[in-house]
Amino acid sequence: MSSLYDVSCFAAGLAGNVFALALFLSPVPTFKRVLKAKSTEQFDGLPYLLSLLNCCICLWYGLPWVSDGGRALVATVNCTGALFQLAYISLFIFYADSRTTRSALLSPSPPVLDPQLKVAGLLVLVVFAFALIAHASIAFFDQPLRQLFVGSVSMASLVSMFASPLAVMGVVVRTECVEFMPFYLSLSTFLMSASFAVYGLLLRDFFIYFPNGLGVILGAMQLVLYAYYSRRWKSSDSSAPLLA
Fold it and tell me: Residues near 194 by Cβ (< 8 Å), separated by ≥ 6?
């Protein structure tokens, strides 16, 4: 019979997987718009490429030959995330809008790189960066230094991902508008981070609980901002005149 400790670890990790799925599904409305317009318009593919690199590094950390005993639920969530990001990037490459490139060719300004080639080139760079990290961890490090090396890289990657909404939070404060900070995205970030922070604490894994602990703080800050500014934004929006 499984101990209470094992059940608690599994429950926390499983909850993190479920809440992470909501995060991975959050770009779906964006790509529905892309599919309908058959163009990526002004959307940027870089966040999906960085998310792919982050998922690959964290997936690598969760594997048993990197982490002592393995971190199965870390591996599963990041494997799922990597597949989602690959799907989004593929759609981005396929529907990348080249109209800006064609217009640039007709103008006297310096030529602009084709968006499809740019995203494809960055994808190759991401794959190369991950392959380099994975190879270095196997070729130059034995345990426990291998786990320390990959864990440090994955932690830095996670911290940078969790810190990325700070710019959006600044926009919310300046504009007093929560339009660009969706509530359910912030809530999913908070719940996923909380689940994996508990998972990391139960496993006594600093490389899991520290970055996710920061994610809990930043997610809570987003929810507080949303609660404060959403009422003001809705009241000002409802008082605005309707256009016929």
Answer: 212, 216, 219
DSSP for 113-154, written as a single string: PPHHHHHHHHHHHHHHHHHHHHHHHHHH--TTHHHHHHHHHH
* pLDDT tens for each residue of 189-229: 899 999 999 999 999 999 999 999 999 998 898 888 888 88
> b/e map of 10-35 (b: 16 or more CB within 10 Å)?
eebbebbbebbbebbeebeebbeebe
> Distance between CA atoms of 186 and 225, rounded to whole angstroms?
10
- Residue 125 identity: L
Q: How far is CA 227 from CA 42, 112, 183, 193, 206, in A?
A: 29, 42, 9, 19, 31
Whether 96 and 40 have beta carbons less than 8 Å apart is answered as: yes
Residue 233: which pLDDT band, with cuts at 50, 70 and 90?
Answer: low
Q: Write out the DSSP string of 26-52.
A: TTHHHHHHHHHHTS-TT--SHHHHHHH
CA-CA distance, 104 to 74, in Å (whole number)? Answer: 44
Q: What is the pTM of this model?
A: 0.81
